[in-house]
Design a protein that fits this description.
The complex is a heterodimer of chains A (about 110) and B (about 110). With about 110 residues, chain A is mainly beta. In chain A, about 0% of the residues lie in helices and about 55% in strands. Classes of the chains: A mainly beta (about 110), B mainly beta (about 110). At the A-B interface, strand 4 and strand 5 of A face strand 5, strand 9 and strand 10 of B.
Chain lengths: ~110, ~110
């Protein structure tokens, strides 16, 4: 079955710097890759997703890149702000409805 | 906006009790999911359902069962609670659209088994 690894497990950046979180997946049939942000005391919220027919997708300060050959995808956050501090999860899914999640990255943006 | 509501934010139960966790979604989604979240392990799928009265085992179904009598409601049942079931439980729903659709999560139930 699918296995998703995520690095780093914790990440601290200065406000205004960029943050990058990388995930690798094992199943070449996976074709949908969402990213979720989980703030303290809340459930995960979808922040961006990418499908396998696209190499990159941007939404304001957030971007996701996908390398199907290497089977990895990355989340890029530019101009980080304190409110970006949270736990971020990547996931991978094939044509089914189920997701396999990475273990999460705790991002701290230091003022 | 999709709203997934979990009935309790915090719950404390005793070993051996039968525990019910309730989840309701308001977007007419076909698919519903129960996960447990533990530090360093991410989200692990317990059970899911693609339609009313349908249920499928996820990766860690042992000690759990589910019920889906109505489209909007998906219940997780701990038949005889044990201390190793102390965890955060998350419910999610998604639509059966063309291709993969994002899952929308509730805010979770933090369950403690004493």
């Amino acid at each position: 079955g699918e296995n998703v690894e995520q690095h780093p497990s914790t990440l601290s950046v200065q406000e205004g710097d960029s943050a990058v979180i990388k995930c690798t997946y094992s199943d070449s049939a996976s074709n949908y890759f969402p990213w979720y942000k989980q703030e303290l005391g809340k459930g995960p919220q979808l922040i961006i997703d990418i499908r396998s027919n696209v190499g990159e997708k941007k939404d304001q300060r957030i971007a996701v890149t996908l390398n199907k050959t290497a089977k990895h995808f990355s989340l890029h956050i530019t101009e980080t702000q304190p409110e970006d501090s949270a736990v971020y999860f990547c996931a991978a899914s094939d044509y089914g409805q189920n997701f396999v999640f990475g273990p999460g990255t705790r991002l701290s943006v230091l003022p | 906006d999709v709203k997934v509501t979990q009935s309790s934010r915090y719950l404390v139960k005793r070993t051996g009790e039968k525990v019910f966790l309730e989840c309701v979604q308001d977007m007419d989604h076909e698919n519903m999911f129960w996960y447990r979240q533990d530090p360093g392990l991410g989200l692990r799928l317990i059970y899911f359902s693609y339609d009313v009265k349908m249920k499928e085992k996820g990766d860690i179904p042992e000690g759990y069962s589910v019920s889906r009598e109505k489209k909007e409601r998906f219940s997780l049942i701990l038949e005889s609670a044990s201390t190793n079931q102390t965890s955060m439980y998350l419910c999610a729903s998604s639509s059966r659209g063309k291709g993969n659709q994002p899952q929308h999560f509730g805010d979770g139930t933090r369950l403690s088994i004493l």
